[in-house]
Amino acid sequence: MQAFKWALAAIFAISAAQAQAATVKVGIVGPFSGPYAHYGKLFKDAVEAYVASQGGKLSGHDVELIYRDTSGPNPTGTRSLAQELIVKDKVDYLGGFVFTPNALAVAPLIQQSKTPTVIFNAAASDITTKSDYYLRTSYTLWQVTVPLAQWMAKNGVKKVATAVTDYGPGVDAENAFKTEFVRNGGEVVSSVRMPMATTDFAPFVQRIKASGAQAVYTFLPGGPPNLGFVKAYADNGLRQAGIAFYGTAETDEFDLQKFGDAALGLTTAFHYSAAHDSEANRKFAAALKAKAGDAVANYASVGAWDGMAVIHKMIEATGGKRDPEKAMAAAKALQWESPRGPVKIDPATRHVVQNVYLRKVERSGGQLVNREVQSFGAQPDHGLAAK
Fold first, then answer.
1. In this structure, are residues 141 and 180 in contact, taking their beta carbons and an 8 Å threshold?
2. What gap in Å lies between CA 219 and CA 367, rounded to an integer?
3. Which of 252, 199, 209 is nearest to 233 (CA)?
4. Which residue of 70, 232, 304, 310 lies most exposed, with the fewest beta carbons within 10 A?
5. pTM
């Protein structure tokens, strides 16, 4: 009888160890091919660097990372990929999503399957309202634009032209800027919307030059459009005409060195700079470099890094088991020191509250950097409050 008890105890111990070691599946959705493939690499490098920084396991569990390629803005295709991850691969968590239309297309699946999903990048305010299982570790256009509009109005800028890419986030950015700038006494003298497929920005910047604006506020998706717009801004003499440049992610670290001297002095308001001076940021950069020598610390990689930190805490809270409600409750209570500074998840909106910084491009050690010159302090998602 005693031997039987010992055998039974051993079986229980083995079962407990197996349960503890159960593999957690995380699906990562993003563009890994096409013109926006750099986002996929940024996600992959940061996700894998985070797991490696934790010794290869999250809360004692092996993690299987399953990547799916959306190639770009592709709502129908993204929905199919997410459905495959949920139904066929049976993932426990989802993360990623560069483009707002893709994230919105997946929301009904997330809601039905109760799959906790962390947005690493997509920035339209209303995404988290579309499913109770969405969380966001990136930013929203309202969050970074409202304090910039306030600062501009208070620092002598009275007339502004807006120039945005004509899709959901661009319209969101335009509305955020107009609402706050006008509220603070400014005037928007021209509103320019540029098609997604634009490669020649000269006609648009000429409209801005002729508008009588003192400054341009712009939003474009990351990658080639940023380079094209800044080049057109420089080549068409807007700086010499006294039209200052203001934006958000347009001087992204992924492309920053490609701009050359045309970027010097460009001013943006954003939640992260690779030049942020903190121990957490230095550890983040070191972890990225250890994973891949060409890894880049930027807003997309920090969104993915912090997204995995949130998934880590959800795994910890649930013991690696599928318990969506317990996972979401744990995530909504989180606050931590991110590479970008102190952050927390707003339990009401499931969106990250974080510092936003005024940044100017300058040279440091022979490299262009986004130097933080002022902190606007912790910012919520002003977009949801406005709606």
1. no
2. 24
3. 209
4. 232
5. 0.91
| CB 192, CB 201: distance < 8 Å | no
From 3.40.50.2300, 3.40.50.720, 3.50.50.60, 2.10.109.10, which CATH number describes the 2-139+277-347 domain? Answer: 3.40.50.2300
Checking 286-289 for CB contacts under 8 A at 24+ apart, the result is 287/49, 287/50, 287/52, 287/53, 288/45, 288/46, 288/49
User: pLDDT tens across 247-288, in order?
Assistant: 999 999 999 999 999 999 999 999 999 999 999 999 999 999
SS3 call for 75: helix
Q: Do the two domains 2-139+277-347 and 142-270+356-386 of this chain adopt the same fold?
A: yes
Structure tokens of 264? 């010097």
Tell me which DSSP letter residue 263 carries: G
Tell me the CATH class for 142-270+356-386: alpha beta
Collapsing DSSP to helix, strand or coil, 386 comes out as: helix
- Helix (H) / strand (E) element for 50: namely helix 37-53
What are the structural domain ranges in the chain? 2-139+277-347, 142-270+356-386
Phi, psi for 31 (deg, rounded to 5)? -85, 115
